[in-house]
């Protein structure tokens, strides 16, 4: 079976330019996700705690049955791990503005500010509600990539002003 690479198949969604752009994100089916209100961001160089929803896009062959089988198998391998918080769901992000941030996570502030300036200049405003929030899509492995080379897609949901 050939490996599916979301970045290659959906370049407009996962490999934006360093100049902000507007994208209409189609419904994404089969996302594995869980909420963790005490996620320790130190894995990504951040020492404070966050309230996160972590979403991982799944290949089409991951049906609800395959997902449940995987959760059962993982629970057996890792006793004590609460797999009940993981779920397989669809997600519609819709109209967004996005930009590629290159560099350390702690240096995202100016990139986010530039994204917000772009959004306003195009006649939109950021509207965060429900799961339509500030999204960061991590394309680099921080354990293997120098901080100045880390690539992160920053995406904000938008609506017309």
Verbal overview:
This protein is an alpha+beta fold and 161 residues long. The chain has one domain: Regulatory factor, effector binding domain (Multidrug-efflux Transporter 1 Regulator Bmrr, Chain A, Alpha-Beta Barrel). 22% of the residues lie in helices and 36% in strands. The chain has 4 helices and 8 strands; from the N terminus they run H-H-E-E-E-H-E-E-H-E-E-E. It has helices spanning 6-9, 11-14, 64-77, 109-121, and strands at 21-25, 28-40, 49-57, 87-91, 94-102, 124-126, 135-138, 151-160. Strands 1, 5, 6, 7 and 8 form a 5-stranded antiparallel beta sheet that branches. It has a 3-stranded antiparallel beta sheet with strand order 3-2-4, with no helix packed on it. The radius of gyration is 17 Å and the shape is globular. The N and C termini lie far apart (46 Å). 12% of the residues are buried. Mean pLDDT is 84; it is low at 37-44.
Helix-strand blueprint:
Blueprint: H1 6-9, H2 11-14, E1 21-25, E2 28-40, E3 49-57, H3 64-77, E4 87-91, E5 94-102, H4 109-121, E6 124-126, E7 135-138, E8 151-160
Antiparallel strand pairs: 1-5, 2-3, 2-4, 5-8, 6-8, 7-8
Organism: Desulforamulus ferrireducens
Protein name: GyrI-like small molecule binding domain-containing protein
Domain GyrI-like small molecule binding: 24-158
């Amino acid at each position: 079976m050939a490996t599916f690479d979301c970045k290659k198949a959906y370049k407009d969604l996962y490999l934006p330019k360093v100049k902000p752009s507007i994208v209409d994100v189609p419904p994404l089916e089969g996302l594995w996700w869980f909420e963790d209100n005490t996620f320790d961001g130190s894995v990504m160089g951040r020492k404070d705690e966050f309230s996160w929803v972590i979403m991982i896009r799944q290949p089409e062959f991951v049906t609800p049955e395959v997902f449940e089988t995987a959760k059962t198998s993982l629970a057996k391998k890792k006793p004590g791990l609460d797999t009940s918080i993981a779920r397989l769901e669809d997600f519609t992000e819709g109209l967004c503005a996005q930009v590629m941030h290159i560099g350390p996570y702690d240096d995202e502030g100016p990139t986010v500010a530039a994204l917000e300036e772009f959004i306003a200049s195009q006649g939109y405003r950021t509207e965060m509600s429900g799961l339509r929030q500030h999204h960061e899509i991590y394309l680099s492995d921080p354990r293997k990539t120098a901080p100045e080379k880390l690539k992160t897609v920053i995406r904000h949901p938008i609506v017309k002003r």
